[in-house]
Amino acid sequence: MPIGITEEHEHLRTAVRRFVDDRIAPAVVREALDATTEARPGFWAALAEPGWIGLHVAEAHGGSGVGLVEQAVVIEELGRACAPGPYVPTAIVAALLQADGGAAADALLPGLASGARTGAVALDGATLVAGGAGADVIVCAVDGAWYALDAAAVRATEVKSVDLTRRLARIDADAAKTAAQAAPERQLANLTDEQVRLLAAALFAAEAVGIAQWCVDTAAEYAKVRVQFGRPIGQFQGVKHRCAEMLARVEL
Predict the structure, then answer these.
(1) What is the enclosing helix (H) or strand (E) of 127?
(2) Who contacts 103 (Cβ-Cβ below 8 Å, separation ≥6)?
């Protein structure tokens, strides 16, 4: 069972699955892995065109005003393909700005919702930012307060990463402090540390569910066709039980 449980969710999931199948083949992911630096993927404009990035953004800010569950449905399907690019970090930043509802939201949300701008968040005030290498806007903590600052102003630079589909960047703490002082209107005064962590965790978790579901599907299909001792290995209890346990964990 996917995250979305209503008929509308299923229609959305099907539309995203179709996009993934058409535009994010394994070769596209491999291309991102082999690239020397992170860049917006070639499918980015097409991915932004249906308005999925702004599903959880209010209509007044250029979004659809639907909700986080719908956004999670999209992210789950992108996770199944291990889709490279800034979608998930951008969706998280949009969620944070939407939750804050201040002047920064008015200034930045329309660009994020349309895909014209991308975002990333430095969780727990860390200087390492997932997806920050190609972001336009970085949400980070400065002296205990959260700000949405221009990536150039915080001197975000790409660093060596384990996950090459979403590379790390390091921000300069002193530059971030200077940028925050120069742009007080970018402070997210209504955000708490807990809100930042929970919103980011919810959307990262949706992606993780999609990745886990791909693992279950792939293992189950392989168990049907891999033959050992004259029988598909899926007929052996040791394999069946493992696949069933995987499925149960994904469902939870």
Answers:
(1) none
(2) 185, 186
pLDDT digits 0-9 by tens, 150-167: 999 999 999 998 888 899
Question: Is the entire prediction scored with pTM above 0.85?
Answer: yes
Tokens representing 90 are 């951008």
**Side chain identity at 23, as an amino acid letter?**
R
Which tokens hold the place of 179? 């940028």
Distance of CA 197 to the CA centre of its chain: 14
Closest CA to 168 of 157, 176, 177: 157
Taking residue 82's Cβ as centre, other Cβ atoms within 10 Å add up to 19
Encoded tokens for 223: 């168990």
Q: Give the CB-side neighbour count of residue 135, counting CA atoms within 13 A.
A: 41
Residues forming a β-bridge with 148: 139
Alpha carbon distance 245, 220 (integer Å): 11
The SS3 of residue 161 is coil
Judge contact between 71 and 203, C-beta under 8 A.
Answer: yes
What is the widest separation between alpha-carbon atoms in the chain?
A: 71
Distance CA 88, CA 101 (A): 20
**Under DSSP, is residue 141 helix (H, G, I), strand (E, B) or coil?**
strand
Q: Judging by beta carbons within 10 Å of its beta carbon (0-12, 13-18, 19+), is residue 109 exposed, middle or buried?
A: buried
The two structure tokens encoding residue 24: 């994010």
pLDDT digits (tens, 9 = 90+) for 118-158: 999 999 767 889 999 889 999 999 999 999 999 999 999 99
